[in-house]
Amino acid sequence: MSLKKPLLSEGDLSRLIEMAWEDRTPFEAILKNFHVDEPSLMRIMQENLKPSSYRLWRKRVKEKSVKHLKLRSSEIKRAYCPTQYKISR
After folding, report:
1. What is the CA angle 33-72-83, rounded to 5?
2. How buried is residue 34: exposed, middle or buried, by Cβ count under 10 Å (0-12/13-18/19+)?
3. Is the N or C terminus of the chain more exposed, i.e. has fewer CB atoms within 10 Å?
């Protein structure tokens, strides 16, 4: 069952698309942060990407078991690579 289409700011939409492209970000994290389920995310991606980019994204998602928490190894505890975000500390 799809949730109703959320109203996203331009910044939120950009972050949502970025998270969808990230291999290690599970759909459940996107649902928690943006209240967008997988079917709604597919629709958003299709509306905002070029057709060839959407097909490439769908192919990647189907091949990545880490996009679904239930299929993910229990040894993976992080959502992203430690070197992914270059935050000065």
Report:
1. 65
2. buried
3. C
29, amino acid identity: A
- The model's pLDDT over 13-45, given as tens digits with 9 standing for 90+, comes to 999 999 999 888 888 889 999 999 999 999 999
- Rounded to an integer, what distance in angstroms lies between the CA atom of residue 36 and that of residue 16? 9
DSSP single-letter state for residue 85: S
What value, to the nearest 5°, has the Cα angle with vertex 39 and ends 49 and 35? Answer: 95
For residue 23, what is the enclosing H or E element?
none
Size of the chain in residues: 89
Between CA 21 and CA 53 the distance in angstroms is 10
